[in-house]
């Protein structure tokens, strides 16, 4: 099955890699983007502008998930993947060529905000659309491994964005980077639009979707049916995904800033550690998917959640130490736990829903969960640390989310459709 569908697997993974490469670039260059496309202000105002533009993308993710989810259930899984790839390549190109605020004034601010909206919308639909697309092309015995390829490619995309950012800054002078160099990584990602076109016109849709077309079982109103008949599954999905979102953003978004600004460790060392953790996660996610295919969702997630609850307090204590070697051990442990959790989620979550509403339900539940738990995680973590003066408070929050997920996994019951 893997050999038979290698073009589909490769196309889906490459699309996901560049989707998250583009997304990582925007996050990593957010201050530079704010400097170039917003009115000149003090550093605090620029930082606020950068965070606001970043937040806009998270706010529209559920909307993008619903939009692309409905397209996937009504018009085809590959349509979702192709459209979302094309939609994220356009803002990437625009960012690379857009004149600055100094050249065209407030128009630059408006256009960059719109591009961020479009970026958020497309990210909201691509990952879950790719999950349906890839898993419905595979045998049931390979669902875990195939789904984990998408999470592994997500980590590779983030790593590629981080490496490109590092290399461009290392090659150019600060003046060259700030004037024009930061645009190069965005323009390098522009050709991904060709992959979107290729998927749309050269790749077959899933056998499951084609069968639904043949038997006239396409759901006319997938969102309405999802909310009316599958709200329990949506709630269970959100509960299970809460821990995955929180621990992933703890690793990928919060720790890098905490270790630099709160602990005062060297930025170069932290960035290198972060890139190493991306590599570890890309590998461990595949192991998680492989395990899912052998022991099933309930055993796997009960074990992972128990590990998180038992170890997170000890890990946060290590992160507070002044010895950087202990910090390395702690961050690697977090990376492994996060990767184990997210690796099998595509297969586990997709199994919750029937074929005719899978794309809509997956997109809705995943993006709501990521927006509520993932998007707010760095803010909540920093608030807890500033309020209590200790990273241990974060451990309590992650434990609380883990208990919610444990209840969700106890209620978990896969659909018979897949």
Automatic annotation (TrEMBL):
SUPFAM superfamilies xrefs: MFS general substrate transporter
Location of the protein in the cell: Cell inner membrane
The species this protein was found in: Orientia tsutsugamushi (Rickettsia tsutsugamushi)
GO cellular component, one term: plasma membrane
Record lineage: Bacteria, Pseudomonadati, Pseudomonadota, Alphaproteobacteria, Rickettsiales
Family matches, as PANTHER family: ALPHA-KETOGLUTARATE PERMEASE
Signal peptide: none
Top-level lineage group: Bacteria
Protein name per the record: MFS transporter
Gene Ontology terms for molecular function: symporter activity
Membrane topology: Multi-pass membrane protein
Domain Major facilitator superfamily (MFS) profile: 8-417
């Amino acid at each position: 099955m893997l050999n038979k569908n290698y073009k589909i697997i490769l196309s889906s993974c490459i699309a996901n890699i560049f989707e998250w490469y583009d997304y990582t670039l925007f996050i990593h260059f957010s201050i530079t983007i704010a400097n170039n496309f917003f009115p000149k202000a003090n550093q605090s105002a620029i930082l606020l502008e950068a965070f606001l533009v970043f937040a806009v993308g998270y706010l529209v993710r559920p909307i993008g998930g619903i939009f692309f989810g409905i397209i996937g259930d009504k018009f085809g899984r590959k349509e979702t993947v192709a459209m979302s790839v094309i939609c994220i390549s356009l803002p990437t190109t625009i960012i690379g060529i857009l004149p600055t605020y100094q050249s065209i004034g407030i128009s630059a601010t408006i256009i960059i905000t719109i591009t961020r909206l479009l970026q958020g919308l497309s990210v909201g639909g691509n990952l879950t659309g790719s999950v349906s697309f890839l898993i419905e092309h595979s045998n049931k015995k390979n669902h875990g491994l195939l789904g984990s390829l998408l999470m592994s490619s997500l980590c590779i995309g983030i790593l590629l964005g981080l490496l490109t950012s590092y290399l461009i800054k290392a090659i150019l002078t600060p003046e060259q980077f700030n004037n024009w160099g930061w645009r190069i990584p965005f323009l390098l990602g522009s050709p991904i639009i060709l992959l979107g076109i290729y998927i749309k016109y050269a790749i077959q849709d899933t056998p499951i979707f084609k069968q639904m077309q043949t038997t006239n079982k396409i759901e006319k109103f997938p969102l309405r049916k999802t909310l009316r008949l599958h709200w329990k599954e949506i709630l269970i999905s959100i509960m299970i995904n809460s821990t995955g979102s929180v621990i992933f953003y703890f690793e990928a978004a919060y720790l890098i800033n905490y270790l630099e600004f709160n602990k005062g460790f060297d930025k170069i060392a932290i960035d290198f550690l972060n890139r190493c953790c991306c590599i570890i996660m890309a590998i461990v996610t595949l192991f998680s998917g492989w395990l899912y295919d052998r022991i099933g969702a309930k055993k796997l997630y009960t074990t992972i959640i128990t590990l998180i609850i038992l170890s997170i307090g000890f890990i946060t204590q290590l992160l507070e130490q002044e010895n950087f070697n202990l910090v390395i051990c702690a961050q690697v442990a977090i990376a492994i736990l996060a990767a184990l959790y997210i690796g099998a989620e595509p297969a586990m979550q997709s199994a919750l829903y029937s074929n005719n509403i899978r794309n809509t339900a997956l997109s809705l539940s995943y993006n709501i969960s990521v927006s509520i738990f993932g998007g707010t995680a760095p803010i909540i973590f920093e608030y807890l640390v500033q309020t209590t003066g200790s990273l241990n408070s974060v451990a309590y929050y992650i434990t609380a989310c883990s208990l919610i997920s444990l209840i969700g996994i106890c209620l978990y019951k896969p659909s018979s459709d897949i």
